[in-house]
Amino acid sequence: MNLLDKYIKQIEKDVIGNKGKAESKETGILIELKDGIAIVEGLYNAFYGEIVEFENGTEGFIIDLSEDTVGIVVFGNYLTLKAGTQVKGTGKILAIQVGDGLIGNVVNPLSKSLDSKQNIKFDKLYPIERIAAGVVKRQPVNTPVQTGIKAIDALIPIGRGQRELIIGDRSTGKTTIAIDTIINQKGKDLICIYCGIGQKNSKIAAIIDTLKINGAMEHTIVVTASASDPVSLQYIAPYSATAMGEYFMDKGKDVLIVYDDLTKHAWAYRQLSLVLRRPAGREAYPGDVFYLHSRLLERASRLNSKNGGGSITALPIIETLDGDISGYIPTNVISITDGQLFLEADLFNSGIRPAISVGLSVSRVGGKAQTKAIKQVSSRLKLDLAQYRELAAFSQFESELEEETKKQLNRGSKITQILIQKKNRTYSLGEEVCILWTATQGYLDDIAVDKVLEFEQKLLDELTTAKGKEIIKKINLTKELRSDTEINLKKLVSSLVKN
Amino acid sequence: MKIKPRLKEDLKKFLFLKLGEESKVVTLISSHKLTNEQIEDIKERFPRIKNKEIILEIKENLMAGFILKEGSKITDLSLKSNLNNIKKNIYELT
What we know:
The complex is a heterodimer.
Chain A: H1 2-17, E1 24-34, E2 37-42, E3 50-54, E4 59-65, E5 69-74, E6 86-93, E7 95-98, E8 106-107, E9 124-127, H2 150-155, E10 165-168, H3 174-184, E11 190-197, H4 201-213, E12 220-225, H5 231-250, E13 254-260, H6 262-275, H7 289-297, E14 311-319, H8 328-336, E15 339-343, H9 345-349, E16 362-363, H10 372-395, H11 403-418, H12 429-440, H13 452-463, H14 466-478, H15 483-498
Parallel strand pairs in A: 8-12, 10-14, 10-15, 11-12, 11-13, 13-14
Antiparallel strand pairs in A: 1-2, 1-6, 2-5, 3-4, 3-6, 4-5, 7-9, 15-16
Helix pairs in contact in A: 5-6, 7-8, 10-11, 10-12, 11-12, 12-14, 14-15
Chain B: H1 5-24, E1 25-30, H2 36-45, E2 53-58, E3 65-70, E4 73-78, H3 79-93
Parallel strand pairs in B: 1-2
Antiparallel strand pairs in B: 1-3, 3-4
């Protein structure tokens, strides 16, 4: 009863509040309804991006202004609308409610809760589309995002505020990399947003499950517009996820956003554009499909301390067909982002997981953000791997190889093995450094290829003992490999190799 | 087929004329027939429609009150829309 009284009081307040006010509103009449798009006559003084309301309470927003009609994207079920329905302008620009209460929730792009948790506490209204921070407000990337994945942290490091594309064929572990990165942020000061665009509901459910099992939902927001949601929601999903990120960034916090995936987002936009009869270009995408993604990813930034010092790191995902990265959308997004992680189906099938193709993957700015400890071990690693790739290509044809070449080939194959990692098993900085150090110092050279993973497990077990713990703790604390720690590590590893 | 420029001009003139006429007209929709006094009262409260031609319409489903239509702009002061608003408020709260 108490609740009912509260409601009645609230309604009274709302009704009395509007008394005596005569509000004039822009209106129009619905004349045409296509897949998710309503064409409305009237609304002569409406503006682009304005939210409108249909007679039955459904909302939509203006995406197209022509001479005497406007095109409206309908949120929700458009099948109940009828021709002749009155459409009211609200005079508000498309904005969503944001707040700290979002963390740990599964929401749709209009920040309505999708799971049992109701009454999310909101703080502010944020516009879905916002101009990205200008040059004056930014500073270079200087802090790393610890992904907990050895291959990425060592070879293709990602910094806070960077945009790193994850690209690859279907089922090559793109989402897994993103989810592992989110899982590894447990207990760190990085808020994660997973934005699913046009994904299967079953996949989203599995992801939420994985996050919950690994205790990662406490710092994560899941924004989803699934394949069965209207295309309008799929279109705005990444923008509203970014708006949520911006709320935290403006508060000086660091945010990581995963857009899974932008290929489907481009498809959604293509559908809208074609229904709106905009001229189609290559592969029937509209002319502004580049701007569609560039204005989104440009909002990822690292603000300088004058502006709060927050950051948004973007991990967009693109799905390719048959490993073809020269498609229209892949090349667009590659050129927008600060580097890409290219995943290969062949590597994945031969058991090298994460299936990162080291040769084709780059990080244009992440190197500056690497911690000193990783830098100490990774420079040697990169060199060894580069030489290995070069030699491996033509050593297949020659039977007699020089001793030096054989050595390099051996080293390379061991390093490739040591970079293999199980899914949902992330490593701390200390663990990563110890393992990579062991590999670059050549301790793995005398171990058979199929025994490398076994050795790694032994090493990890050793690192949990009292002596090993001290080493890990020191590296995690100082973020560098000091000479005294290195000596301790050397003792530990060489005793392990002897056994 | 090309449209002759003279025809275009004529069409433009016609449209301007029609738009001008439209902007001079205001539609007043009410639930019951309004008396002259009531109309004068409404004009008093909305000074911008004073010099405009008023077309009266009756729609009984408004229940009470009236709607003022000027082009695409609408001022809705009917009981029906007020009730609808309350309905929406209740939905939002629950």
